[in-house]
Amino acid sequence: MMRxxxxxxxxxxxxxxxxxxxxxxxxxxxxxxxxxxKGLNPAGGHPIDWQNxxxxxxxxxxxxxxxxxxxxxxxxxxxxxxxxxFELNPASWLKRTxxxxxxxxGLALFSxxxxxxxxxxxxxxxx
Length: 127
Description:
Elements: H1 2-30, H2 50-57, H3 60-86, H4 92-126
């Protein structure tokens, strides 16, 4: 019971992290005229102009936020899916199997996404 309470608390915390980081993303990428943030679009123009993408890619904090957002979103989504599936009241062996499969899928996706964020940061720094 205590383990479920800790996981639920992490689930809620992940939701708060997602809310904050997606809000930041929306501000940087879609509200750049309304809320101009100096230094995030140094070439001027639209946030998805190639020069701005490369400039932001060289900022290590962006790569870090991508990894944190990825981890929070994966945990939040997969734990929520696990809870939905557990509402069907499967057998205990199936609950364990579902938990292991979701954990392995989450770890694989997190590893791939982290690699992509680090590779993008490295490539941007090389340009």
